[in-house]
Amino acid sequence: MSRGGARREPVQECATLDVPLDYSEPYGQRISLALNRIRGTVSRDGNHLGALLVNPGGPGGEGLSLAGYVAARLPADVAARFDVVGFAPRGVAPSKPALSCVDPARFFAAPRPDNVPRDDADEQVLAGRARQYAEGCGNRWAWFLPYLTTENNARDMDAIRAALGEDRISYLGYSYGTYLGAVYATLFPRRVRRLVLDSVVDPDVDWYDANIAQDRSFDRRHRDFLAWLAGHDDVYRLGASQAAVSYAWYALRARLRDRPAGGVVGPSELDDVFSNGAYTDRLWPYLAAAFSAYVHRGDPSILVRLFHSEAEIDAEKENAYAVYLGVECRDTPWPRSWARWHDDTRRLHAEAPFMAWPNAVYNAPCAFWPEKGGTPVKVGTAQLPPILLIQAQRDAATPYEGALRMRRRFPTARLVTSGGGNHGVSLAGNACVDRYLAAYLRDATAPPQRRGARGTGASCPADPSPRAAPVTVSSAPGAAAHESAVRR
């Protein structure tokens, strides 16, 4: 482990760690992981609990910023007992190498082709772009892509543990980070002290089928947003019923195909912006204001500002996207026939029009990926101390049923269920959830096991519904700092 540079903050230490590219050849080629650490204040000969590794999900999310977030928001007595350690997984900047497969300014220049094809020619454009992206990754990273897997990410975590001199580590993972944590616990059960999985990935399905489940849950969550808008028709004037607001939203989407808002927000960019509202209802007032301003006044300013702050694909987001595809396309098998993608997506679009095609387009490079998908780790073990699962009932990105299945894979797991649909529940303002998290991290106190119909250990209320309020252009960005790090 080598130190790198001066500390940006007095409490933060930065380092790099070289790990094997291929763990079957531990003395072969090495790659470099970027790490940071926020030390706890309790001494090692006191009641210190060692390292707490954190991961925001993705795959493709960097955990360096999350480490500071977690350390600042845990109760002081809990944070004092852990060294919170963030890391950028292999391929994610500033780890080296950092993947990039295209020039994002050119390839993702807005407005992009509509995610929803009107005819076969449109669909071939979308498939061609997916193939082009996959070829760009293969041309640049043929030597690296075979080793970009969740299993190797888990082995990297154990290398971090060893470099820190810890016999056991604790872990807090969100979204895809829950699957990474589950794989780590399966491979290294005796190295786990505490394990928290928040917004839980379904361990029973491959990534292609997981995305199909997402299509339905994103559509449901989008309807929640439309119903909220209808409940505030006095503010936004978009319709007094969910059906009326839905009609207005899809009419706006069709209108943007020919006349993009501000010259940049076409239907695909609209999908990107509004899909963020499925991750957190804290964005709903901003999305509502953008929607209303454009429909009633033709004012694109809030919508364009939201696109630039929340959805525009810059170099950082393209790096995350490249790693997302690299891991998911390699972890599990994907259909290689575009006819299969076409048939499944057309059928799903009739049922779940909000996300069926956008999600297919997002993942479509896996149909052409230069490395075929492998066999995933079969997660699950009874050789663990109590572990904690946290899940919102109407989560779009990781549907609730996945948490129930993960609980069955780990007999020592206890599940805390919150109402609502926010993705990434803990340390985001839900006091009930945070009490369970703190108690578990503090002394491994987990909710009692209940063997009811839903198999939960404890229940927490949903966050309060967001308040309809005026939004200005300058206030639109940065509405969801926590959720922006906990996506997909």
UniProtKB/TrEMBL annotation:
UniProt KW keywords: Hydrolase, Signal
UniProt-annotated stretches for the region Disordered: 447-488
Residues of the Peptidase S33 tripeptidyl aminopeptidase-like C-terminal domain: 357-448
Molecular-function GO term, any one: hydrolase activity
Alphabetical list of Pfam families matching this protein: Abhydrolase_4 (PF08386)
Matches recorded under InterPro entries: AB_hydrolase_fold (IPR029058), Pept_S33_TAP-like_C (IPR013595), Serine_prot/Carboxylest_S33 (IPR051601)
Family, similarity comment: Belongs to the peptidase S33 family.
PANTHER family referenced in this protein's UniProt entry, alphabetically: 2-SUCCINYL-6-HYDROXY-2,4-CYCLOHEXADIENE-1-CARBOXYLATE SYNTHASE, TRIPEPTIDYL AMINOPEPTIDASE
Protein name: Alpha/beta hydrolase
